[in-house]
Amino acid sequence: MAGTQEGASHGGGGLRVRNPQDGAAGLFLLAVAAFALWQGADLPLGTLRSMGAGMLPTSLAVLVGLFGFILVVLAFLEDGPALERWNLRGPIFILGSVIVFALLIRTAGLAIAGPVAMLVSCFASDEVRWKEAVIFSVCMTAFCILLFKVMLSLPIPVFTLF
Amino acid sequence: MDLFANLALGFSTVLKLVDVNVPLLGVMPLPVNILLCFIGCLIGTLIGVLPGVGPIATIAILLPITFGLDPTGALIMLAGIYYGAQYGGSTTAILVNIPGEATSVVTTLDGHQMAKQGRAGVALGIAALGSFFAGCVATLVIAALGLPLTKLALLFGPAEYFSLMVMGLVFAVVLARGSVVKALAMIVLGLLLSTVGTDLESGQERLTMGLQDLSDGVDFAVLAMGLFGFAEILRNIESPETRDVVRGSIGRLLPSMADLKQSFWPVVRGTGLGAILGILPGNGAVLGPFASYTLEKKIAKDPRRFGRGAIEGVAGPESANNAGAQTAFIPLLTLGIPPNAVMALMVGAMTIHGIIPGPQVMTKNPNLFWGMVVSMWIGNLMLLIINLPLVGLWVKLLKVPYRLMFPAILIFCCIGIYSINNNPSDVLFTAFFGLIGYVLIKFSFEPAPLLLGFVLGKLMEEKLRQALILSRGSFSTFIERPVSAGLLVVAAIMLVLALLPSIQKSRDEVFTE
Description:
Radius of gyration of chain A: 23 Å
Domain DUF112 (chain B): 34-452
Number of helices of chain B: 23
Structural class of chain B: mainly alpha
Protein name (chain B): DUF112 domain-containing protein
Order of helices and strands of chain B: HEEHHHHHHHEEHHHHHHHHHHHHHHH
InterPro entries (chain B): DUF112_TM (IPR002823)
Transmembrane segments (chain B): 121-147, 153-176, 183-200, 332-356, 368-395, 402-420, 432-457, 478-500
Order of helices and strands of chain A: HHHHHH
Shape of chain A: flat
Number of helices of chain A: 6
Low-confidence stretches of chain B: none
Low-confidence stretches of chain A: 1-13
Radius of gyration of chain B: 22 Å
Mean pLDDT of chain B: 83
Shape of chain B: globular
Oligomer: heterodimer
Pfam families (chain B): TctA (PF01970)
Distance between the termini of chain A: 42 Å
């Protein structure tokens, strides 16, 4: 994401970016559109009478790009808010904990994946109290096993290490 | 009287006894549907009370759990969560000055002031009574409009359906918060996402990047949970809220005669406004309370009382949000078109159970349709009981700090997503969409239009292709057919109006007030 931010603040040469947030948003859309066009390049377009698999993805990607372009242009014309601060700590630990859960659920089971994922997520917050967090995550996992596995009998692996 | 016969069918569905194998107690007949309705309402109230957990994430989590239920029961429970959340949201708005749900934002204005003046109980009471009234009226509206709209929908061809959905998406843009261009961009992005996966006609894989897991397309629950569930947690952690829980007693719950008199017409007007706006696609249910508050303030003899604990400012909007939450089911049940993100999840729930949403629901599954309608009325009655005497319990819940809540939400989300297909890669995709959701928030894009575009995308593509095959590749079919042309004209007018600078300004006012 750093790339789009930089692009917004430095782009434009003599022109001044008056709405950095919309400018960056536009560049984001342009990037998405370019990616979709590249991915869909091999799909046949077909004709209107019998559309090919690529007709809609390609035209929608062009539309997304068009909106991105409009936002970039508008960013030079209208005043708007500055870019919000990007705090990477939240995304890294919250989404990291989700990834940890995904990796552990089959290999170790919920009994391990649950507490580990919850404790990883705790790094995202300043207010965490570790003793409390450890006890809470273990109890919560036990509750989840009881609720989802025992009561609702969903096929979740609980413990697969041994 | 058809209506009464239908409602009777609904009651018999809801009250039906089913033999259930209860652990330890053996097989016994239980009114399963009504129990599910109660569980739905209870969970709905719970998540409504807790800020930061919305009905979208909750329904997405519970979706896999409903696999084992019969479809009617499953939908009754999921619906209960949605309108139950409207009741619960007001409790938090009044007692803590934080909207428990997006639809109770305006309730904080006067509701919390009333609480500070020691009238918290009355505010809660009038909110619940107003919501109950609105719920009853909305149930009747659904019952009355269901049949004619279904008949209308059966006359629609692919071209009309396509135009109807275009109109729906345009409404979603117009009624969304913030920039129109950005909302349009989100809809198109949602449509683009919906094309990911195997093309139904040619069997070719589209935009899957060669990933096996994407060949069935992006799972709706995965997208919703990432964009709403995880992104919401990220937002909450970054800007911790201060909770200003009202101390001291809640006071008496039942409003006095004078209060009731003062609130009667605001409740009626709020119900009307909410019911109408709720039917509209887009954010109708969210807009209702705003519209009601603005109206009450405009016609009040002394508008200065608003913001200082005016009971009308609680009664009107609270009725409006509940009415809107229920009438939002009308487009889904009759036309098969979800008007907002929660209804989109309902589509997911219905398809999982093999029911294709649309006009045929009422003819093929009358028990389901009328059972749901009647369950809403019964659910509203239950909510009155859940909310008023149990309010002390909900207040205690509010004291749970967010540092404990977010890991709990997270683990529920992970288990819910994993259980959809028992596939860990779904969980990874959810994390990816959580990141996307966070990026969108930072660029002040609204995720709701994206989700709506995504849900309607597949159906729109199908109808577009059918219409173009029928017309031999000519787009004029959309304009030559009168109904389709009419719908497109309405959409065009709405869009132009929304883009006009003067309207844009007043639109901003509605949302900021």
